[in-house]
Write a structure and sequence with these properties.
The protein contains 17 helices and 13 strands. It is of the alpha/beta class. The strands form three sheets. Strands 1-2-9-6-7-8 form a six-stranded mixed β-sheet, with helices on both faces. The protein is elongated, with a radius of gyration of 27 Å.
Length: about 475
């Protein structure tokens, strides 16, 4: 059966036999079908891109497009984290994607859409290319799939974007421009600079086909954990939670959808409270991929309908979640990818609220600088009370430091650092302050060390 050519010569899957009418059904029917072809062509040429709202049908179409172009990632029960969180916790491992993050789903889907539109007179993205602003993972997804599809990609990244992401984009052929201190400043440059006037801008979360691509994760979760009770989703610009919630709630409305965002970048919480996307003040967060000052309108329109609630995750729990995942799952996650787990840990906003339930959380990305990982693990150890710093006020006499080191060693603690201060000591002139940093096995070990110091009459200043 021949494919018909519409006015733009695109041939969009519309079989037509002009001789004798459409499949022998008559000339009138043929003309009706031709009009539908033209209508579809108008759509594919981009006349309604800005107005389009993502539908479940878009997500199904995205899944077909991604079938041979993105992984169906694992979603497995994690026994140790289940015990710690009090849930039956399943991890959806999006860090398994080639670029290390879920973002390539939306990137591939939107590039496929643009290519299809170019066939009927839309912008030829293989000639013009595309541009995006991104803290890293969206840039990686576009760069990787753009290189496979012959589409030039320019990415504008904040000056503080992780170097591992910047360097990988360059290695895969992207033109990388670093501009601005925040994602918002990078986006402003990408969308207003004259050099990009004729280049399509691909939003990392406020785009219907990016949202649809992310929504395919929801379809996979329902197949991998059919009796799931709740899904905890890390939130930045809200594209992931919008697509995922639309997919899951369409098929299983009773599944609870919960957003987890850093308390230092709580843009979805603000939008939910005010009833529309609102600009929020963003301060530093380990989850740099979630540091978005204002969520997208398209994302909000879906999330406000399907998301049950959103929680704010304390900053100190995110490094701890990264540590837990390294030790228990043997997986290296970036801060954004670990935020869902952080919300479920003791001290987190969801701890104790989902006891015994089957919970899936999205490990959305694993792109983290090795130097940053080292610092984060130390922060995690400190939050876990396995790396501890305390002070002793002791007499300033020979042998004091040796005695302290011997006592600490006798408890099995490992001294990482030990130094003393005289000039800034405010007490008697014959006293000094000793600052100790030690590695411990946990709370019981900490108690044993503290008790040993008190038994030996040391004056201690202990952290809360």
């Amino acid at each position: 059966m021949a494919l018909a050519k519409n006015r733009c010569g695109s041939g969009h899957d519309v079989p037509r036999e002009w001789e004798g009418g459409y499949l022998g059904l008559g000339r009138e029917h043929a003309l009706t079908m031709a009009a539908e072809v033209d209508q579809k062509c108008d759509w594919l040429c981009g006349k309604e891109w800005e107005e389009h709202a993502t539908t479940f049908t878009d997500i199904e179409a995205a899944r077909r497009r991604l079938k041979d172009n993105a992984l169906v990632t694992d979603c497995t029960l994690q026994q140790d984290l289940s015990r710690v969180t009090g849930t039956q916790l399943y991890l959806k491992k999006e860090y398994q994607q080639y670029t290390g993050a879920f973002k390539e789903r939306g990137a591939r889907n939107v590039l496929e859409e643009l290519l299809e539109r170019s066939k009927c007179g839309g912008i030829d993205v293989r000639d013009k290319g595309v541009v995006a602003a991104s803290a890293g993972n969206h840039a990686l997804g576009l760069t990787y799939h753009g290189s496979k599809m012959g589409i030039p990609v320019t990415v504008v990244m904040p000056l503080g974007a992780p170097m591992t992401k910047v360097n990988r984009c360059k290695a895969m052929g992207a033109t990388v421009i670093q501009h601005g201190e925040t994602f918002g400043e990078a986006k402003h440059y990408a969308t207003t600079s004259e050099i990009f006037r004729e280049v399509p801008y691909i939003d990392p979360f406020n785009d219907p086909w990016v949202i649809a691509g992310a929504g395919t994760i929801g379809l996979e979760i329902l197949e991998q954990v059919p009796d799931v009770d709740a899904v905890v989703v890390p939130v930045g610009g809200a594209g992931l939670i919008a697509g995922l919630s639309l997919a899951i709630k369409t098929l299983k409305p009773n599944v609870e959808i919960i957003g987890a965002e850093p308390e230092n970048a709580a843009s979805l919480s603000a939008a939910m409270e005010q009833g529309h996307p609102a600009q929020v003040d963003v301060s530093y967060t380990v989850a740099d991929g979630l540091s978005v000052p204002k969520i997208g309108q398209k994302s909000f329109d879906i999330a406000s309908r399907y998301v049950d609630h959103v929680v704010k995750v304390p900053e100190e729990l995110i490094p701890l979640a990264i540590l837990r995942l390294v030790e228990m799952e043997r997986a290296v996650l970036e801060g954004a990818g670990a935020t869902g787990v952080a919300s479920l840990l003791p001290g987190g906003p969801l701890y104790g609220t989902l006891d015994g339930k089957k919970v899936v959380t999205i490990l959305s990305g694993g792109n983290i600088d090795s130097t940053t990982l080292g610092r984060i693990i130390e922060r995690g150890l400190a939050a876990d009370r396995r790396l501890l710093r305390f002070q002793l006020h002791v007499p300033d006499r020979p042998g004091t430091l040796g005695e302290i080191a011997k006592l600490i060693g006798s408890t099995g603690a490992n001294i990482k650092d030990l130094y003393h201060e005289r000039a800034w000591e405010r007490g008697p002139i014959n006293m000094l302050t000793v600052v100790c940093s030690v590695e411990l096995g946990g709370p019981e070990h900490e108690k044993a060390l503290k008790d040993a110091l008190l038994r030996n009459k040391y004056q201690i200043a202990w952290p809360d």
